[in-house]
Design goal:
The complex is a heterodimer. By secondary structure, chain A is of the alpha/beta class. Chain A is built from 11 helices and 10 strands. In chain A, the strands form 2 sheets. Chain A has a 5-stranded mixed β-sheet, with helices on both faces. In chain A, strand 7 and strand 8 form a beta hairpin. In chain B, strand 7 and strand 8 form a beta hairpin. The termini of chain B are far apart. In chain B, helix 2 crosses helix 3. In chain B, the strands form 2 sheets. In chain B, strands 3-2-1-4-5 form a 5-stranded mixed β-sheet, with helices on both faces. Chain B is globular and about 50 Å long. The longest helix of chain B has 18 residues. The chains are: A alpha/beta, B alpha/beta. At the A-B interface, helix 2 and helix 3 of A face helix 2 and helix 3 of B.
Chain lengths: 357, 258
């Protein structure tokens, strides 16, 4: 074995103007595959959620998630091509021009399923392999939906275990300017929903409550909201709810009694997210902001961002709900730019559980 | 075996008993067949290549967690060395474990993907069958292969020696309780896998343990077993093999902290 051997399949091939990308995302508990023509034509975006597989545990069990990814990824791969054909694109493996995969951050065992399948595909198809940062990909759901967006941009990525503010000046040129120092916003929302007996994911139930009921009088904290920095903290908010319910005594309120409490809680979450994002945009002189990740599907949060961005004179972009949760289409969109720029990876591509600092 | 090359820091395992020499693998049936065998279920990566019906390469190396990073490069080098590309393979054989969680998945993910893209059959072979074929047992002698798990559980399968290194499976692999299994093994040799060499064997101490020259699944033996299975029903169907994990049910009783 040559210790110096690195293999970059397909790197020498001439780049196509409208390439067909195949993308995979297995970073957490959703198995997602997408076929993308060019930068924006989604031929297929198929996702299998594992919520039901983990329901009995009240949270995602990493090993179970990894096993499930391997069970379903190949049938889903076949289904992606079927879906593309249903959409009028007669494509097959031989038509694929590059293979992209989210290789960080997330559950390592789960990521490695996607990475190994992607590397095998790139090798056998002799096409470039592109490793994608899942967090960097989330804002590209907006590029899919809205087309080219003018830089610089501030992105709020509120996805599962991450709440981050990114400052992007060009494609591939971005940095993290704010992050949660403890729980992510979505994690906080899910845990509070669980306190009220809602199954995972609890975000939609909390959003519905906030949409239906005006906020109650409960004075939930807005952690770090008035701190001049751009970091978030949501652990204290979750704890505040826990103490509030404890002090209420008796059964946890349900239905109409729970609605205003959840609405007040979610108002606190939205206040912090909106305030920090707008502060980042103003400080970094970014005329536009994007919101992406699972929490971006919240109708209440969108309304809050619409009001605040209009008042501040900022251009706001958010994706349709189907592109808010983890999906491979956003991965493919970022990968299309990487393919055009010739930024491809070798077959030694690894998976990483954490974001680089 | 003239084209076989070996990587790694152990001695070459005995290549006898793989079926090519004693006629179990009919050369005429294998004519023109290119096949790849992959096993990453243990710390030792095992790869083997069949080119035009004859063994072309056998590679094994201690990889541990590096398997994911290096596997595709090794495959490329293995096939390039034999003048083949992945698309020229006709058959895939994968070790399905029992093995480590991620390790077992890596090899199977590669094999399943190659099979899906090429449309060629994929045969799964469990590690106990491979290890049984690596044991030297007299013809007609019953023996057992045990693979240690945790919580007093072992994977077990009984075999009978058929001479020249071949072994016939007497019953499918099962997860067994050690306390229940050990009395059944009295007087019959056992192959023990995943026991620390220096660790006391406890309840196994009095068993008649069979040493293995290379106590990990070997690529060519995996290949031979896969080919036997393939030749027994060359038209298929070949259902997608499923991985066998160590501690397969462990997570069912685990509960996250409240």
């Amino acid at each position: 074995m040559s210790p110096l051997l690195t293999l970059t399949p397909g790197a020498a091939r001439p780049r196509k103007a409208e390439p067909l990308g195949l993308a995979i995302d297995t970073t957490f508990d959703d198995t997602s595959l997408a076929l993308l023509r060019g930068r924006r034509e989604v031929l297929a975006n198929v996702t299998l959620s594992q919520y039901a597989d983990h329901a009995e545990f009240g949270g995602v069990v990493p090993e179970r998630a990894s096993r499930r990814h391997l069970e379903v990824i190949h049938p889903l791969l076949a289904q992606a091509f079927v879906r593309a054909r249903e959409n009028g694109a007669a494509v097959d493996f031989a038509d694929v021009d590059y293979v992209a995969v989210s290789n960080l951050p997330g559950l390592l065992g789960a990521i490695l399923v996607g990475v190994t399948v992607a590397k095998s595909l790139a090798w056998v198809l002799e096409v470039p392999l592109i490793g994608i940062n899942h967090i960097e990909a989330h804002p590209y759901a907006n590029f899919l939906e809205h087309g080219e967006l003018p830089f610089p941009l501030v992105h709020l990525v509120a996805a599962g275990g991450h709440t981050l503010l990114l400052h992007q000046e060009a494609h591939f040129n971005w940095r993290i300017v704010g992050r949660s120092v403890d729980d992510a916003a979505g994690e906080c929302v899910d845990k509070v929903a669980k306190m009220f007996g809602h199954p995972m994911p609890g975000g939609p139930q909390v959003d519905q409550a906030a949409l239906t009921y005006p906020p109650g009088p409960q004075a939930f904290p807005r952690p770090l909201m008035n701190d001049p920095g751009l970091d978030f903290s949501f652990s204290g908010l979750k704890t505040a709810m826990m103490y509030y319910l404890r002090d209420l005594g008796g059964e946890v309120p349900q239905g109409e009694q729970a609605g205003p409490i959840l609405s007040a809680f979610f108002e606190a979450v939205c206040d912090v997210l909106v305030a920090k994002t707008l502060r980042a945009a103003q400080r970094l002189k970014a005329p536009g902001i994007t919101v992406s990740g699972g929490l971006a599907a919240s109708r209440v949060l969108r309304r809050r961002f619409e009001e605040a961005s209009a008042k501040a004179g900022l251009k706001l972009y958010y994706p349709p709900p189907r592109l808010c949760t983890d999906n491979a289409a956003m991965v493919a969109c970022l990968a299309a730019y990487r393919y055009e720029a010739g930024r491809v990876d070798s077959l030694e591509l690894e998976g990483f559980p954490n974001l680089p600092l | 075996m003239s084209e076989t090359f070996i990587a790694g820091d152990v001695q070459t395992p005995d290549a006898l008993g793989l079926g090519w020499e004693d006629g179990r693998l009919n050369p005429a049936a294998l004519q023109g067949l290119n096949a790849l065998a992959v096993d990453t279920s243990s710390d030792w990566l095992a790869l083997a290549l069949l080119k035009e019906g004859r063994p072309a390469a056998n590679l094994y190396a201690r990889m541990g967690r590096r398997a994911n990073r290096s596997l595709l490069l090794l495959l490329e080098e293995l096939l390039a060395g034999a003048g083949l590309s992945a698309r020229e393979l006709h058959l895939l054989v994968a070790g399905i474990g029992p093995g480590s969680f991620t390790g077992t998945r890596i090899g199977m993910a590669v094999a399943l993907t190659l099979a899906q893209v090429t449309g060629h059959p994929l045969i799964g072979v469990d590690a106990l069958r491979v290890l049984a074929s690596q044991a030297r047992v007299a013809e007609g002698r019953r023996f057992h292969v045990l693979l240690n798990c945790a919580r007093e559980e072992v994977y077990h399968a009984p075999f009978i020696g058929r001479g020249k290194g071949s072994a016939e499976t007497l019953a499918p692999i099962r997860l067994r309780d050690m306390g229940e299994l050990i009395p059944e093994l009295a007087g019959e040799p056992v192959v023990l896998r995943r026991f620390q060499p220096d660790a006391p064997l406890g309840a196994f101490a009095n068993l008649n343990a069979l040493p293995l020259h290379h106590p990990h699944p070997d690529g060519l033996r995996l290949m031979a077993l896969g080919l036997e299975q393939f030749l027994a029903a060359p038209a298929g169907p070949f259902p997608a093999p499923e991985p066998i994990y160590l501690k397969s049910e462990a997570f069912r009783t685990w509960r996250p902290a409240p």
